[in-house]
Each structure stands twice: as structure tokens, then as C-alpha cells.
Amino acid sequence: MRAFVLLVLCASAPGFAAAQDTAIVIQPESGGVVIRPPELPREVAEDAVRRYNAPTTTRLVGRSRLPAGNEWRGDVAVRNGAIVMAGRIDGTLLVINGDAILDSGAVVTGDVIVVGGTVARRATTTVGGEVHVYPAPLAYRVKGEEIALAPPDLRRWFQSLGIEKSWGTADSRSSLSLATGGTFNRVEGLPVVFGPLFDWKLHQNVRLRIDALGIFRTAGDFTDKRSDLGYLFRTELRIGELPAYGVEFRAFDDVAPVEDWGLRSGEVGWAAFLFQRDYRDYYLSKGLAGRAFVQPDRPLRLDLELRHDWETTVAARDPWTVFRNDQAWRPNRHRHL
Fold it and tell me: Which of 113, 116, 112 is nearest to 138 (CA)?
């Protein structure tokens, strides 16, 4: 059992990747169940493509700059790069897979719409319309001077099979999810994640996100004191984009590997499911955590976290496998805490 306060200061050099025509989303390896970030709503993606392809839109690719004293008339769209502006846009600004940085004196008479990025603005900037920010990137392909929505990524579907029902508006979304939540292993079997997720816009630049997910462990009870159910609960209240402030609360009951043994989660899962060879050992992590953060600029973030958690050993169960199903699993080694 552990309880501690964690103070973290994160800083990284600002930079922007070279422009590419295809958006690539990297899913990091996870020790336990993964809550995937919400995908871009279909209506937002279609609206971004329509605005970009409009014949009256000025289209830019890569990092762009509009100095003070300069003006662009009409709608402006930037893809695969940030725009830094201190001048004036007499219309709507659309940024696809990049950031909008509005410096002192910047004026946009219409809306500011950012898909796959963030907005940083000083108090002296002026936006005549509304500011819409969607962190999820837009997957698209280039067709001459225009863009089109990319076909669904089947690899993403197979990484986490399941179904999801979503409803709401472009700014506020709610969904119910039922999906596989991690790697097949001899402790849990195949974990199945289910429950609601909410991402609501409460006010201008104020958002509330709630994830309330249960975890069903198909391998059965661990001990007489354990049930087949775990949980992941997270709520975050965020004010502003840049600068941003917020608080977060988490509660979790999750099974995680002790070590990765140099293998990816998919390799470990298939070896266990097909040949009853699980190359990892696991432990149960359960606890509560609270965090407050301040992000004055994109490369700088300050976090203060208070966490109280428990880590205990769990025994191997006997989930079904394709081959060698009549053999005993390797014991789950004890974790020394």
C-alpha cells in the first residue's frame, strides 16, 4: 500500500513535425486496460472537409505565418501544420492536424475551428465568431487540390474489437461502449470493458470528461476475496486551451504486467491464446488519485498529484486456449512490494 504526493514539471522544446499527407495516430503500449481517446465525430470531419474544399477558401499546407499588419480576405484553411498569426483574417480560420497560435493583435472575424490540435491565444486577440477545438486528428487523403475522408482504419478496429453507440452534438458527446480492453492472459482471460463515456462542453472553454467503465474478467474469480469485475473511473474538469487549468480524479481496479519482457502486447496475447505461453507476470493495482494541473504554454505543464494505491499478487487461472488446453499454466510469480 502506498500513499504519496507527486509534483511534476514537464517541459519540451516546441517544434512541429514535417508535413505529411496522411494523419498517423500512434497508440502507446499499455500495462493494463486502455481507454482509447474519443474519435473525431463524423459530422465534424465532414464539415472540415467541406470547408477546406470550398472554392472560396484559401488553402495552405504546413507551418504558416501571418505577420502583424497583413490581412487575408475570405476563409483560410491550414492542414498539417501550425499557423502563427498576428494579422487579420476576414473570414473563418480552419486548422487541420495543427495548432492555431493567435498572437497579440490577431483578428479573425469569423469562427476559429481546430481539428487535431489546440488553440493558444493572448487576451488582446479578437475572434468575431466561436472557437471550436477538437483534439482528435482528421484522417484524410489528398485528391489533387482537395481532400477526402480516409477509409476506416481496420487495424484500429482489430486492436480493440467492440461496439459503441454515440450521440450528442459536435461540442458535447456521450457514448456507451462494449469492447475488448487489453491483452489475453492467464490471470484475466480476455478483459471486456463496458460502460459510458461523456465529453461535455459546459461553457465557453470549459469541458468536463467522465469515463465510468467496468472490466469483466472472463477467466473467473482470482481468490475468495476477489470478484470478476474491475473498474476504471476518471473525471476531468478543464478550463481553457492555452493557458489551461484543471482538476482530475481517478479510481481504478486493474490488472497490469510486472514487466513487458521485450514483447508487444499483441505478441504476448496471441502466444497465450494459441499456445498457452504467457511470457508476462501480473499484479492487481487498485487505488484513488487526484490531480491539479496548470499549463501556461504548450511545452510547459505543472502537475500536482495525490495518490493512494495498493498492489497485490494475483494467481493464474485456467482460461481456455486453442492448443495445449489440457496443460497447466505457468504460475504467476509473486510480486515483491
Answer: 116
